[in-house]
Amino acid sequence: MERDFAVVTPRYLRTPDAALHLGLSPRTLEKHRCFGTGPVFRKLGGRIVYALVDLEAWAEIGTRRSTSDPGRGTVHPAKRIDPGAPVRR
């Protein structure tokens, strides 16, 4: 008797896997979450998860074609943002 097994593609990633997906360390992603500079996340129970589409959307903000390309926005470093600094989005 054969059984069909569906391949489940994860829609949500925990912090270590989300960081790996983005090429960051988990600690850097945690800092982004604390400072509000990172991708959108969800709290499900006591767990922090990231939707794949949100990770891709956040990474897409930093897309550039050249060093002179201003792009659509800025992916900030994982540190506190100066409230007096102008915001580019």
TrEMBL record:
Annotated protein name in UniProt: Helix-turn-helix domain-containing protein
Organism: Sphingobium xenophagum
Region annotation (Disordered) ranges: 63-89
Pfam family, one: HTH_17
InterPro entries found in the cross-reference section: DNA-bd_dom_put_sf (IPR009061), HTH_17 (IPR041657)
Domain of life per record: Bacteria
Helix-turn-helix domain boundaries: 12-60
